[in-house]
Amino acid sequence: MGSFIKFPVKNGHRITTDMLEKYEPFEAWLIFRMDILVARKPADVLILLDIGSGYVFGHIIVLNEMPSSSELENLMNDAYKLPEHWPKILYCSQNDPAKELFENSAVKKGIFFEDAPSSVFYEITSPVIETFGSFQKSIDGGGKRDEWKKPSEEEIMARSLIPDSYDPCPCASGKKFKFCCKPVFAEIIEAMVSAEKGNTQRALKCLDEAKEKVGETPEILCRYAIVYSFFDKKKSCDYINRCLMLNPRHPRANYIRGIDLKEKKKYKEALKAYEIAAANYPSGDRFHLNEVWNNIGTVYYELGDYMNARQAWEKARDYMPEDDMVLRNLKLLDEMDNTRQ
Q1: Measured between alpha carbons, how far is residue 246 from residues 103, 115, 127, 144, 253 in Å?
Q2: Which domains, from first to last, does the chain contain?
Q3: DSSP string, 15-68
Q4: Residue 212, Cβ neighbours under 10 Å: how many?
Q5: 2-to-42, 56, 129, 334, 338 alpha-carbon distances in Å
Q6: Exposed/middle/buried for 211, CB within 10 Å: 0-12, 13-18, 19+?
Q7: Which region among 143-157, 192-206, 240-254 has the lowest average model confidence (pLDDT)?
Q8: Cα 117–158–24 angle (5° rounding)?
Q9: What is the mean predicted confidence (pLDDT) over 85-105?
């Protein structure tokens, strides 16, 4: 049986991305997944949702990434019974492993199909995920279900920076995030936050816990390097070298190496390291791609190559159009051009 999830409303519009605001009830459906544990083993719940009304038609529990065709058809046909017509469009996350199955089902029914980054749907899916999580918590722990609260702009931005489970892992291992760094993502984040606050011993302990879970992966080695950079530069460099021996394409390690080389004024070597980082970050990792292209632009600027500096900073702006630093850099070049004219 379905259920209604109310979305917050602002100025008469649902708080979603612009591309989704136009839909009336039952015009557009979204199928998305969330991680769960079944008998202590990772699994997914596939949820079919009406975008215009927030109505949850139903769900499928998937143990091996892919639902069967019959399971999907049953979910779709049950959803059809309420409006008694198919939607105009069916959406899903661009990296969902069952995307082709969803598309084939939609095409057979004359439904237009489109995929998009999971972050596009965050404001729509978050109340469902929070409600489901609170329900699980109340069943498992006997606690009260938490009332869903609209995510703040900061939370929405932070969530958009977290890879979807089936996105390529940002460490450039070639694996999906769910099967690579996601199991230790919480420990990594806590380690980075602790290091920034000056609690490097807590940071190292978090990374030790992560290492116990997944072993000494290139990502773990890179994170050790970041923590040690606060108080032991030599050890930090050693960890970066060990990381790059295991995975020469590791984007974060190459980015850090680029910073070190730039500080030593080894600009051409710094460019090479930054360019490896830019080539290996996933295309959807806007934050880090913005960061690395901004630094590439800075190196070109130091070399006096203002044309390539502008091109790099424009790429950085494409990834994060509101980045003040990039906008200031481009304004600086504009002022230099006006002075020369």
Answers
A1: 38, 34, 40, 46, 11
A2: 3-158 (3.30.420.10), 169-247 (1.25.40)
A3: SS-GGGTTPPTTTEEEEEEEEEEETTEEEEEEEEEETTT-EEEEEEEESSS---
A4: 10
A5: 24, 5, 15, 56, 62
A6: middle
A7: 143-157
A8: 50
A9: 93
Closest by CA to 46, choosing from 90, 83, 88, is 90
Name the more confident of 93 and 248. Answer: 248
Which of 165, 168, 167, 222 is closest to 195 using CA atoms?
222
Give the Cα-Cα-Cα angle 60, 63, 65 (nearest 5 degrees).
Answer: 85
Q: Which two tokens stand for residue 308?
A: 């390539």
Tell me how crowded residue 308 is: count the other CB atoms within 10 A of its CB: 15
pTM metric for this prediction: 0.70
Distance of CA 28 to the CA centre of its chain: 24
Q: Which residue, 209, 213, 176, is CA-closest to 190?
A: 209
Tell me 148's DSSP state.
Answer: P
